[in-house]
Amino acid sequence: MRLLIIEDDQDTVAPLVSFLSAQLFTIDAAHNAKSALVLAETRHYDLIMLDVMLPGLDGISFCQQLRTQNQRVPILLLTAKDDPADRVAGFEAGADDYVTKPYERSELLARIRALLRRGDTELTEVLWWGELQLDPNHCQVTYQSKPLHLTPKEYKLLELFLRRPRRIFDRQTLLDRIWSLDECPGEEAVTTQIRGLRRKLQMAGLTSNPIETLYGLGYRLRSLPEERQNDEEMRKEGNGTLHSQSDHSQCDSTSGMDADYTAAVATIQQMWQGFQERLQEQLATLEQAIAHLTTNSLDPNLRQQAQTIAHRLIGSLGAFGIPHAAELARQIERVLNSSTAVLQSESAVQLETLLQQLRCITQRSPMFAVPSSEGAGTGRHGDTEIEEDRSPRGYGDTGNREVLAASSIVFMIDDDPNMLEPMQAEAPNWAVHLETASDLISARERLQSPMPNAIVLDLTFSNTTESGLTLLAQLKRQFPTIPVVVLSGQGDLSKRVEVARLGANAFLQKPAMPSKVFQVVTQLLNPIKAIAAKLLIVDDDSVLLTRLQANLEPRGFQVTALADPTLFWQFLEVTCPDLLLLDVSMPGFNGIELCQVVKSDPHWSQLPVLFLSAHSDANTLHQALAVGADDYVLKPIVEADLIQRILKRLGQLSDSFTVEKTRP
């Protein structure tokens, strides 16, 4: 699905594009109606999202112009103008829907999907090719009910082929349909993505290649094997490959979309950091306007500038997932829009209060979450079931909406009143909403409601022999992205190693100052920017490749997985990785030989190489060192340990060569 967003405020459009791209939409963006009109006339769009207040031609007039040209594409007006008269004008101009800023991402996504269902393409159908299934509603691909983890480009290519089973697509058409305008790939990018898609389908078990190459023409979906065609005839549906299934059940496994959700969150967090400097300048202008209003010296130009800033903040703060802050900006805009006679001392006091609240809320990074279309999920470990809340953190239906919008929720599990009371007293200084539990039973009950942003866990409790380590293991299996800080009176090495192996994010020995605990939590909730490094992993174990790709891509890495070492050199030159991960024992060419080839080539000699191996003997380790290995990780692999080692090789952490036996 290709969407066109027309919005002149970059701080509003950037997080929106990131969010919708995570839903596997192809997004083009235009900053004014003139350039948008050119795009709408030359490209096919499934939906247009349109701001009302645009430079030059406004959104209402643009909508009218499209309709007079018989453009039937669905149009959704996305604007901060919430007056009923504006809504009426929008619908009379030909808009199909009208959404006011700030908006809930989940509601906006639902409205987009509803409009797309009204068009030529039904999103509700499940697309089939034999036992290969693609569910557009949940962005899931499965083969024989097992999930396939595809990149966004691979997913879009497969969906396009399944929707148009007889059509031949040349490379330029695929570039136009799958890649957005701000991407500038060559036609070789299509070849690379097709090759990657075919490889993953083969690794999943497909014996017949669904994507057919017609040399000199392009690609199309191959006809089903003979036995599938017979099945189709029995269903009296001809030899087509496109079917709908209303009772399709979802897989229990996490789909590849989870990685895209997480990557979108990381991208929006980076955008938020970049937005901070502009935000402070905008707030300073508002403060200056209020100061002039207090002395009755507010000139029309400064007033208009302040009105424009307040209006833009409604959209940008809403797009970053801070609706309460956006509502404060709307109130500021309304006061500034009042007549000059009304803008006196009382209005200045009101504006000062609103601006102070706005500064308070925007001082802390919002807790981003990209909503899932599936709702909540549950995971069972032992006899306890924990429900995962998928609503945006900080904006759940809790009754404390305003407080949570500006605070992080930290859940502390400890039965020591000498620790709990100082923590409660310190929490407001860190803009933290602290919830507590004094035993593991009540802690598990609390964890069935919306999840906190971070957890602080003691390991020993006076009323039970059960260790907090049991709950730690359960939490890191069910909610691996939620930081857990462990508190313990035991600080010996064996205890620290045990905690680290279970996946804890930080370890503090008691007694610990509350300020230190909150400092650690704050650092965990505001991590360094995700790395966009490119990794090439070569291993003949397809199951391991799939697992590593699913765990590394959400961290921001661009992962290329290769199961056939005979294709190594072609993939090396195409992907140009920042780091190479090699299995030692592989058919054809082993990892030692591939590393020798890399290190002997002047162009690649400085490429970091990390070995993944089940061989722990000294001879194999010596061979790896001799050919230039930078690190050596023994299988079975723990992803957290592997990520730390990758970061070291990329220069993000202190550098040291280590060999350590890890366990799952």
Structure description:
This protein has 664 residues and is of the alpha/beta class. The protein has 24 helices and 23 strands. It has 5 domains: 2-117, 3-Layer(aba) Sandwich (Rossmann fold), CATH 3.40.50.2300; 127-221, Orthogonal Bundle (Arc Repressor Mutant, subunit A), CATH 1.10.10.10; 278-363, Four Helix Bundle (Hemerythrin (Met), subunit A), CATH 1.20.120; 408-525, 3-Layer(aba) Sandwich (Rossmann fold); 534-650, Rossmann fold, CATH 3.40.50. The protein is 45% helix and 16% strand. α17 (468-478) links the parallel β16 (454-458) and β17 (484-488). α1 packs antiparallel against α10, α1 (10-22) runs parallel beside α11 and α6 packs across α8 (187-204). The longest helix has 38 residues, at 257-294. The model is unreliable at 227-232, 234-258, 369-406 and 652-664 (pLDDT under 50). One of its GO terms (cellular component) is cytosol.
Summarize the structure.
The protein is an alpha/beta fold and 664 residues long. It contains 24 helices and 23 strands.
CATH topology of the largest domain: Rossmann fold
- How many strands in all? 23
Measured as a percent range, the helix fraction is 40-55%
Q: How many angstroms does the end-to-end distance come to?
A: 39 Å
Query: What is the arithmetic mean of pLDDT?
Result: 76
Query: What Rg is obtained from the alpha carbons, in whole angstroms?
Result: 28 Å
Main sheet specs: 5 strands, parallel
Secondary structural class: alpha/beta
- Total domain units: 5
The amount of beta strand, in percent, is 15-25%
Second CATH tier, the architecture of the largest domain: 3-Layer(aba) Sandwich
Note poorly predicted spans: 227-232, 234-258, 369-406, 652-664
Shape: globular
Number of helices: 24
The first-level CATH class name of the largest domain: Alpha Beta
CATH homology superfamily name of the largest domain = Response regulator
Side-by-side strand order of the widest sheet? 2-1-3-4-5
Domain HPt: 264-368
Pfam families: Hpt, Response_reg, Trans_reg_C
GO biological process, one term: regulation of DNA-templated transcription
GO molecular function: phosphorelay response regulator activity; transcription cis-regulatory region binding
